[in-house]
Amino acid sequence: MTFQVTSSESAWLHALDVTDAKMGRFERIVALQATSPIREPADIDNALATFDRDHLDSLLSVCEVEDYFNWRIGASGPEPINYDYRNRRMRQQIEKRYLENGSFYVLIPSLLREQNNRLGGKIGFHVMERHKMFQIDRPEDVKLCAAIMRSYGYA
Known about the structure:
By secondary structure, the protein is α+β, with helices and mostly antiparallel strands. Helix content is 32%, strand content 24%. The protein has helices at residues 8-23, 41-53, 109-115, 139-151; strands at residues 29-32, 58-65, 71-74, 77-80, 97-107, 123-128. It starts with 7 loop residues before the first helix and ends with a helix.
């Protein structure tokens, strides 16, 4: 048996085609990612309020990442990505950065139809707590997410 990998965008477009015919057009899509289970109803409510208030075309959930020095393996070996190790700043002085945590997206259907992309137009953020950034990509991630959810009283 072979499996075909399909993008979330293609699944959402198919769902729009089916629901448009039966229910009419929607004003926005709220796409919850099943592999990012750590979220609360208030995250969605607050994101929708931001989406409407700021007249956004798309919104993504993020977590603030402010205290990491990132490296990669370059052609000549290890090299820093987001700082100069010869002029190392204190972690508290690093500009705020945001990690797309994949928990959910909010977007207008026309953006998806025209650009075949979940993000575009006027983009906004919903900043979530750091413990909500974990995703289930490997079997061991299930235990990690379950432990986090128990410790925060979600499960």
